[in-house]
Amino acid sequence: MFVVRRSASRLYPAGVQLAKMSGSQVGDLGSGAGRGGGGGGSIREAGGAFGKLEAAREEEYFYKKQKDQLERLKNDQIHQAEFHHQQIKEHEEAIQRHKQFLDNLHK
């Protein structure tokens, strides 16, 4: 019999935050400083083609980061399900052993 140990924080995460840019704080992408109060860097503040390129790269970064996070969340859920199915199997086997023990006691 083997024991699988997992931390409770991995089994039941308190909350999952996904990386994303808030559309309400961004004006026209690459057109200069956003409405969120931050400048966004000298290239974004300057606007123009370089600002648009930088904004596109930033959007791509957050898109990929969110995709990776969702993939990890999906894999964690699959591993949790497998873990719990294994636990159910082990508990059912233990129940059968105890039932056989009780049956042998009464004979």
From TrEMBL:
GO CC annotations, alphabetized: mitochondrion
Locations listed in the record: Mitochondrion
Record's keyword terms, sorted: Coiled coil, Mitochondrion, Transit peptide
Region of interest: Disordered: 25-46
Molecular-function GO term, any one: ATPase inhibitor activity
InterPro entries according to UniProt: ATPase_inhibitor_mt
Keyword Ribosomal protein (UniProt): no
Domain of life (superkingdom): Eukaryota
SUPFAM superfamilies noted in UniProt: F1 ATPase inhibitor, IF1, C-terminal domain (SSF64602)
Biased composition (Gly residues): 29-42
Entry's family note: Belongs to the ATPase inhibitor family.
Protein name according to UniProt: ATP synthase F1 subunit epsilon
Encoding gene, per UniProt annotation: LOC111603806
